[in-house]
Design goal:
mainly beta; 5-stranded antiparallel beta sheet; 5-stranded mixed beta sheet
Amino acid sequence: MPRTTPYPTTTTVPASSRPEIEDLTWVSATRGWALVHTARCGSACSEVMETTDGGATWGPVGWIDAASGPCRADCGDGGGPAVTRIRFANDLDGYAYDPSLFVTSDGGETWTEENGPSVAALEPAGSTVMRIAYTQSGCPGPCDLTVEEAPAGGTNWNVLSRPFQGDAVQLVRRGVDDAYVVAFENPAGGADDEHAKLMLSHDGGASWSARADPCGDVGGDEYDAAAIAAASPSVLAVLCRDRVGSQASYVDLSTDGGGDFTARPALPGPDTAAALAAISATDLLVGTVGGMNPQSGRFALFSSNDGGAHWQQVAAETGPIDPDNPAQPFLGFETASVGRWIGDPSDLWETTDGGNTWFRQTIGLAP
């Protein structure tokens, strides 16, 4: 059995060849899969692990012939298939994507690359799967992002939106009706038109409305949307980050599906907010990363029970970090009570009380 250590114990884990989690996906509070990369790459570079007991134990289930993490170098010159994310719609139908798309219909044992456009984001809900696909890049990001939908396990994708452009994109679904898309622009130039843009649908993608980035000016500094999260009913949270100093951030909160937003007070701590989750209009979580040191990065998780008015640290650890890619692999909730967070990509933290108490699981993901 794995060891579990409750917060406030802060654990330093030395860098090693341990497998690292690229992404997680769950179809229930107990059944989930992890996309991981390990020291053994070979011709099949991305390993898929599964758990049926909420993450207490994991076992290998299959391999994907696509590069992932540091295995990209072992897979060739980087021009071949690659995946960074994984989602399952049910116990059998799963997707590994970004930028390639691989599908499975046997719970992850075998994976097949699907011909077609590149896929930047994908989320299942109910019996359908929604994705954001593109065929052109270099503007500098994808130039023809398009929202598409197919039945879970199906390969016939129906177009749901007109093409749009973004340097990066995030898709969030809450139930079968509510879907939210944020297209991020590169704000390095400082131009006003490089804010993120939101697309909102409350009819399962049949129609979309657009609105500007709700993040605004604070004390003369411009803030931009960095992540979104949704909860029922009609809750949309936006993580707003200072365009110049990324350590400064706050949360904008909407309770009418993205129509009107209320800015909350600044987030605590000196580090960069990197992940956002919403359980309800009152219960929010933010993961931060700092240090930016390959050997001793800092990871912390903050929780609010009053809609972002006040925050308290509920978990923390230190570990190796990639300064060029400090984004946290996963922060999400399967139910209002059960959620997971990954700071150090070799560890998994779990809560069963809605985010108030977290336990770190030390798990050997691969033999």
